[in-house]
Every structure is written in structure tokens, then in C-alpha cells.
Amino acid sequence: MEKEGKSDAGNRTITVNVRFSGRSIPVEISDESTVKHLKSLLQPLTNVLSRGQKLIFKGKVLVDEVTLKSSEVGNGAKIMLMASQGLHQGDGPIRKEASNFPTARRMPEAMRPKRDVPQVPVVKSQLERWKATGVVALSECNLKVLPDEVLNCGPSARVLDLSHNAIQHLPATINSLSSLQKLILNGNEIMDNSLSWEELASLKSLMVISLNQNHIATLPPEVGTLTSLKQLHIAHNELTGLPSEIGLLTSLEVLKVNNNRIHSIPESIGDCVSLIEVDLSSNLLVELPETISKIKDLKALYLRNNGLKSLPSSIFKQCCQLSTLDLHGTEITIDVICQIEGWENFDERRRLKHQKQLDFRVSSSGKFDEGADQS
């Protein structure tokens, strides 16, 4: 027997089945709810923004302002969802064939190290070269663990590149590389608790950490101890949020956490006063904290493919250096941003910047074309 109930107001709670991209999505909802509300419920289930959804029931397109009851949508109704191209959040529409990890963060097959190939041995000449140059280059060497020879570099090592291997864990003895400035671990098998953040914090010269294309779901509070950090790259992972301790990184200039599953940004982001570039693209954000306006030196903010409908009210007025703003694939319209105080000054900075470079997104008329629709 199909489930059917009543709410406190006497409205029926019904279950509708929405067909989308080869799968059926059951949604419980009041029959007095509007089609627009149904779309809002479908957004996190499909990654398709509300304005990119077209719901079809019995051959007719459902109208946003009309209730399900008035549209004759009853319990057990089957509705088809069609998605407009480009109007999505995160890594794109969730499809039936989607794997546990977003395909966008997967490395092309040709670029992946062959797991059945033996680990490339470290020879004496390499160790001598590492010590002489300060650059330990071990990208695509089929590594599963950090070679002991690397630790023998001691204070000579300034850059450690372990990208595109199969490393799952970085030992605490990494702190022996006391002069390390850049740690690159892109495209490995790093997961939560794979890194000793306390030991990384002991590397007082460490300014850049790059962890793109791994399996990290949570950043621990200990990340806030890396007070010398200037760049943090952790794109194409599985993050659902950022710790409030991120605000302790007062020297951080670049934060790239695009292509994750982040639902909200902590208010402490406003304490990262040195930030110049922030990339929050392709996440699940519906709003930004007002405190982001406290970042006076912010020049570039990338927000594409999120569920955002508005911007912090003082962002243009207080972020006096902001000149790049990417809103493609969001719910924010040009009418909304033009009403924000300080818009004229931001638009002037944006125009001056684009006069100095070629950018296909800016038309000859100079109108704002960073993704905000007219309505």
C-alpha cells in the first residue's frame, strides 16, 4: 500500500517519483507545496539548480507557482525531470551510472601510473641532485610509500613533488625536511588521517600544500596550526565543509577547494585577512557568510556551479580589490548584484582589468558577463 499521510494543517503528505537520468528519485512532500518547492528538494538530490529544472507530468510542464494538488499531482505520481545544460552545482548532475567519486576528479587513464609496474628505485645520483637543487621530484614513479632516501635530504629539500603516485600515508618523520617550502601530493590515495598535520606544522618554512585529486572528506582542526601557509590546494576531493580553524591561517593567500561537496563556509573565513584568491567553484553552497567581506585584499572569487542566490551585502563595498567574480551556473542574476552597494566601483575595477587582457567572457560592450543572468 502506498504511503500517504496528513500534516498538522490537514494537508496530505504524498510521495512522488521523479525520473532523472536513468534513475527514480522518491520525494515525500505535501500536496499543498508548490512545484518550486519540489524543485528545491530535488536540487541536492540531482545537483541541478532549480532554474535549470523542467518538470513534466502527463505531458505538461509544471508551473513553479502552482501547487502539486492544483497540478493534479497525487500520491505515487511519476514526474520526469529534464535538466538545462550548465545549470548545475558541484561536479554536475548525479546520474545512475555515477561512481562513488566524482568523475571530474579522476585522472585520465593515460596519466595514471600503472599500478603493476615496479616502484622506480632511487639511485645515488638522484639523491645527490636532490641535495644540490633542493627539489625532490618523484612524480609518476609508482610509489606507494615515501622512499627513505627522501628523508636523507634533511634540510636540503625545499620542494617535494610526489604527485600522481599511489601514496596512502605520509609518515611523521616528514618533519626531518625542516626547510621544506612546497609539498605536492596531487593524484594520490590520501584519505582522512593520512597526514600528520601536527608534524607538518613543525615545518616552519612550509608555504604551499597541494592535495588535489585525493580522497579527503574532512580537514581536521589541526590544519589551523599551519600558520606559515600561503597556499592550500585541496580541489577534487570529498570535503563537505571546512573547519572553523581555517581562520587561524592569517598568512594564507590562495585557497582552492573547488570540486568538492562543501555545503557551507565557516564565518571564520573572514579572519584569513591575507587571502587574494578563493576558488569555491563546483560545490553545494547556497550562501556565503557575511564575514567574507572582511577580506580586504581579495582580488578573485570563483563561485561557479553552486546553488547561490545572493552575495554578502557588503562584499563590493568592503572588498575594495575585488576585480574577478565568477558566477557562472549559479542562481544569482545581474539584477541582484546591481542592487548591492559598491557595485559601480567593482564594475569599474572589472572593466579596467579586462581592458588589459583578452577574455572571451567579456563582450565588446563591456557588460558584466561573469555568469549572472538578466533575470
UniProtKB/TrEMBL annotation:
<dbReference type="InterPro" id="IPR050216">
    <property type="entry name" value="LRR_domain-containing"/>
</dbReference>
<dbReference type="InterPro" id="IPR055414">
    <property type="entry name" value="LRR_R13L4/SHOC2-like"/>
</dbReference>
<keyword id="KW-0433">Leucine-rich repeat</keyword>
<dbReference type="InterPro" id="IPR001611">
    <property type="entry name" value="Leu-rich_rpt"/>
</dbReference>
<keyword id="KW-0677">Repeat</keyword>
<dbReference type="Pfam" id="PF00240">
    <property type="entry name" value="ubiquitin"/>
</dbReference>
<feature type="domain" description="Ubiquitin-like">
    <location>
        <begin position="14"/>
        <end position="85"/>
    </location>
</feature>
<dbReference type="Pfam" id="PF23598">
    <property type="entry name" value="LRR_14"/>
</dbReference>
<dbReference type="Pfam" id="PF13855">
    <property type="entry name" value="LRR_8"/>
</dbReference>
<dbReference type="InterPro" id="IPR000626">
    <property type="entry name" value="Ubiquitin-like_dom"/>
</dbReference>
<dbReference type="InterPro" id="IPR032675">
    <property type="entry name" value="LRR_dom_sf"/>
</dbReference>
<dbReference type="InterPro" id="IPR029071">
    <property type="entry name" value="Ubiquitin-like_domsf"/>
</dbReference>
<protein>
    <submittedName>
        <fullName>LRR repeats and ubiquitin-like domain-containing protein At2g30105</fullName>
    </submittedName>
</protein>
<dbReference type="InterPro" id="IPR003591">
    <property type="entry name" value="Leu-rich_rpt_typical-subtyp"/>
</dbReference>
